[in-house]
Amino acid sequence: MIKNGKQHLDSLRDGREVYIDGERVGDHTEHPAFRQAIRSAAGLYDYQARPENIEKMTYTSPGSGAPVNRMWQLPTSYAELVERRKALEAWAEQSGGFLGRSPDHVASCLSGMVMGLDVFERYDAQRAKALWNYYEYARDRDLYLTYVIVNPQGDRGKDPGQQSEGLVASVVDEDAEGITIKGAKMLGTASPMANEVFVGAIQPLKAGEEHLSFTACIPLNAKGVKMFSRKSYEASAVSTFDNPLASRLDENDAVIYFDEVKVPWDRVFVHNNVQMAHAQWHVTPAHVYQNYQCQIRFAVKSRFLLGLARKLTEVNGVIKFPQVQEALGQIAAEVAMVEGLLHGMEVAGTHHGKYFVPNRKMLYSAMVVTQQLYPKLLTQIRELAGGGLIMLPSSYKDFGNDAIAPYIAKTQCSPTTDHMGRVKLFKLAWDAVGSEFGSRHLQYEMFYGGTNMVTRGHAFRSYDWDRAVGQVDDFLGGYTLDVATAPVPLQRVA
Fold first, then answer.
1. Same structural domain for residues 144 and 169?
2. Within 13 Å and on the Cβ side, how many CA atoms surround 483?
3. Residue 215 and residue 322 share a domain
């Protein structure tokens, strides 16, 4: 049976500890801070369960023989990679790309680690076995995973191992049954709507920080797991009409504190090894696969924003202005560039063992470009929309007041739609680019992959410098001082 939305909702009613606005939440699936976003996430599972979508969205699990989402698929060819991408793309289109930590993100990360199972086996055969068994467990249940892999900022002038006791999640005990961890991790995006949390360290560790070098998967209702949510934009949304994104797609970020949480060995994939804590990301395909999913989602999101920009100019009656078409052409070129990089990293992919992996160089190029592109896209939309983003009715209630409704109709006019359609579009645009929800997305897109220094470092390390510098060296080798004044024919270097 294919997992559907009701099954996912039922699985979240598990008694987990969720705190927001100074209190512990009872059934968080019904709380106004989380309710609609959780249902949007459940809607993804309803989408995959529709008869017309089953072939596109699912494949047959090699373990259970039942259909599961293609996010768990381990492609062995270019064709299978594209087949998987189309499923992830369809899911992203359900939210316009605004669900940044949809179920396919961490599933992609875990799948990438499994593709590099040989790397785990070189370090610890037992941990490798635990990883494979957990992957099968999560796959066959179509689990929604989130992760916390970044340390709380604390004193950023100190190394993780130098922070105050109890701040950074670390192993404080171990026995024959497993490890016990205590401390916090960030960012816990979408944790209210996920089943389990993957805990690890993506930031480099050094000798002496072995107690921080663990990776494990933990049910979010496990004893001692405490979730501290940030402010809910959903709870602050006036209505779906006024906040069409924030009211339904706020995937609440959270600090997750592990208060002496016991984790059995069969859920521990890295332990007491700083080298393996790093290798799990960058020697296996994990970092490539998780960020490849991000680029799929970003391509969908940027296309959504491009469509939004075009509609704003049509509603404002400026679409035929040459300067407006030029601005839209610039945005279109940049969006097409993202799509081109996405397709390029697929076509130029290579095998890691039997598995087909997107091209690392193009992936990291895309990460650098999109990190800079998102704030630019929002600025371009603001410029095209102008003051119309600000001068809107205060809420949907204004339309129900007979004394002011005629004035709204008169002042919110458009050559292409009625006053209701104009307000509806501009409310959507403001939610995307100017609201608290929109500002959070700006921060997310700028930093989810790391700071500019981090993403540019990945691009630097993955580029084929031998080929680039070799071209220069070959050219320099084609002439000498002895022939400084004599014409030398250019020759193609083989």
1. yes
2. 9
3. no
pLDDT 10s digits, 431-468: 999 999 999 988 988 888 777 888 888 888 988 889 99
Cα–Cα separations (whole angstroms), residue 483 to 14, 471, 480, 492:
80, 21, 6, 19
Report pLDDT for 486: 63
Instruction: Tell me, rounded to whole angstroms, the distance of Cα 122 from its chain centroid.
Output: 30
Our CA angle for 33, 37, 40, nearest 5°, is: 160
Summarised one tens digit per residue, pLDDT across range 17-70 is 999 999 999 999 999 999 999 999 999 999 999 999 999 999 999 999 999 999
CA 466 to chain centre: 32
For residues 207 and 467, give the distance between their C-alpha atoms in angstroms, rounded to a whole number: 35
Same domain, 265 and 331: no
Residue 415 lies in a domain: yes
Q: Which amino acid is at 195?
A: N
- 254 and 268 share a domain? yes
For range 464-478, the mean pLDDT: 89
d(CA 68, CA 143): 10
* 17-20 and 225-229 strand pairing: parallel
Which residue(s) pair with 360 in the sheet?
Answer: none
Helix (H) / strand (E) element for 197: namely strand 196-199
For 346, residues 6+ apart whose C-beta sits below 8 A from its C-beta are 78, 81, 82, 85, 358, 359
Residue ranges making up the domain that contains 263? 5-282
Asked if residue 297 and residue 248 are part of one domain, the reply reads no
| Cα(242)–Cα(77) distance, integer angstroms | 45
- The CATH number of whichever domain residue 312 belongs to comes to 1.20.140.10
Handedness of CA 90, 94, 100, 104 (dihedral sign): negative
Q: What is the mean pLDDT of the chain?
A: 93
Beta bridge partners of 352: 355
Strand partners for 303: none
What confidence tens digit (pLDDT) does each residue in 418-432 have?
Answer: 999 999 999 999 999
Is 138 found in the same domain as 264? yes
Residues 357 and 261 in one domain: no
Q: Tell me, what's the pLDDT at 446?
A: 85
User: Is the predicted pLDDT of residue 165 greater than 80, yes or no?
Assistant: no
Helix or strand (DSSP H, E) at 215: strand 215-219
| Mean pLDDT of the region 72-89 | 98
What are the start-end ranges of the E strands in 21-109?
A: 23-24, 58-60, 67-69
How many domains, the chain?
A: 2
**Within a domain: residue 474?**
no
